[in-house]
Specification:
The chain is an alpha/beta fold. The protein has helices spanning 15-20, 22-32, 45-53, 61-70, 87-99, 116-127, 152-163, 180-190, 206-212, 220-226, 242-256; strands spanning 3-9, 37-42, 75-80, 105-108, 137-143, 169-173, 194-199, 230-233. Strands 2-1-3-4 form a 4-stranded parallel beta sheet, with helices on both faces. Helix 4 (61-70) runs parallel beside helix 5, helix 6 crosses helix 7 (152-163) and helix 6 (116-127) packs antiparallel against helix 11.
Amino acid sequence: MKQGILVVSFGTSVPGTRERTIGAIEGEAALRWPEARVARAFTSPTIRRKLAREGLAVDDVPAALRRMEEAGVARLAVLPTYVMGGLEYQGLLEDCAQAAGRFQSLDTAPPLLSSAEDLRAAAAALAGCHPGLGKEEALVLMGHGTSHPGDFAYAALEYAFRDRGMKNVLVATVEGWPDFDCLTRRLEELRPRRVTLRPLMTTAGEHIRNDMAGEGPDSWRSRLLGLGYQVECVLEGLGEIPAAREIFLGHLAAVMQ
């Protein structure tokens, strides 16, 4: 009975971060389950079109599911590389539900932050990247954010840091809640001299390079500099952190069983 693994991501057009994050997750999945056919799908039409112009074709989810079926895959496990269960994950579940009858089994793993255990593990993974975080420093994690109720995962992650005694780790989002205004109020309470910005996204793509670390006046870096903070940006997606990849692969292992 042929086994397949479909790794589904929003996608990024930045080659370096794509292979260090999404590619690393796919590569580790292939190493752990060598008998399985491993494939990639990106859900962003904009990114797929941009990559196609560069000569790199990437399937959307329905096309990737058809290819798995045509390849004779009977048991399919789908691993999303999403941070939380928002609109993208909801759309993935709908696509998989429509295709479920074409496979003997089709199981979809949850996104990164899907349980209290996940929140604690993600906090530990990120804390391990900043072991010497001092009282005059704040670590700010920039998430994407969404209008979906799953947006509450971001606030829950900050609570997981506070539960570790790390009150100087703050989580905020570009398009959800907590937002940048929430962030600035928390920074005023903490009064750090230095702020480190890093992505709470699987890849460090255009969103991170522009909205977080860009030179333009609207980037978080520029706005925080304007408020008088010393700012450092870490352009490292979650997929580059081995302990974060382990959360994703643990989710995959659970549905592979």
